[in-house]
Amino acid sequence: MSLILVTGGGRSGKSTFAEQLAHRLGGDRDVCYVATADPGDDEMRARIAAHRAGRPPGWRTLEAPRSVMAALDGLANPLTVRAVLLDCLTLLVSNVLLAQPHQAQTVEGAWPAVEAEVNALIRFAGNAAVPTVVVTNEVGLGIVPDNRLARVYRDLLGWANQRLAAKADCVYLVVAGIPVDIKALQRPLSRFLGGHA
User: Fold this and answer.
1) Which of 85, 91, 150, 170 could link 22 by a cystine bridge, Cβ 3.0 to 4.6 Å?
2) Are 176 and 12 in contact (CB under 8 A)?
3) pTM for the full predicted model
4) How confident is the model at residue 50 (pLDDT cuts 50, 70, 90)?
């Protein structure tokens, strides 16, 4: 298994770093870019176009605002690329939440659908013969959001990030364009508990 999670704040440089990493792994031709953005308005369409223009033209792009595993099924057997880059989990979780009926737009109501997407990504990375790079946002570092839906979203994404980070081989936190391998910095808990952890 080779699952790499890249997280950070907005405009931290995480997508740029993830694309550089995917390029090192797959070059100009052998990368599958899984795009989760839903072009709902002109501003988002412009952002998507700018992202697409910045990628090597030989990369294969899959549009998957939801049901990422269904989009990746064609790659799984046989896998025809040397790296998969999903950008980003942040939008995937948002898309899943907003697709729920209004009464199910709660943590309890939406988590099963979010969890299914996360578990499918973990299974894909575990079965694939190539690295899977997933970009996400760290959204829990600011103030508590002032509305219920934003709080639900923050909780869902935080749990999704934790689930992926626990299974990932590497987790990079990108701060001001600088990637830090935070799993490499992680110390065993037993060191602090006298060997009892």
Assistant:
1) 85
2) yes
3) 0.91
4) confident
Amino acid at 86: L
pLDDT tens by residue, 108-125: 999 999 999 999 999 999
Is 102 marked active-site? no
- Residue of 134, 97, 103, 129 lying closest to 116 (CA atoms): 97
Task: Put residue 13 in one of left, alpha, beta given phi > 0 → left and psi -120 to 50 → alpha.
Answer: left
Phi, psi of 58 (to 5 degrees): -80, -10
With contact defined as beta carbons under 8 Å apart, do 140 and 98 qualify? Answer: no
Q: What share of the chain is helix, strand, coil (3-state, %, to 5)?
A: 50, 15, 35
Task: Tell me the two tokens of residue 50.
Answer: 């700018």
Helix axes 148-167, 107-127, angle to 10 degrees: 20
User: With 60 as the cut, is the pLDDT of residue 100 above it?
Assistant: yes
The model's pLDDT over 133-148, given as tens digits with 9 standing for 90+, comes to 999 999 998 899 999 9
**What CATH number belongs to 3-191?**
3.40.50.300
Count the alpha carbons within 13 Å of 142 in the hemisphere toward its beta carbon.
11
How many other C-beta atoms can be found within 10 angstroms of the C-beta atom of residue 3?
22
The active-site residue, picked from 23, 51, 102, 196, is 51
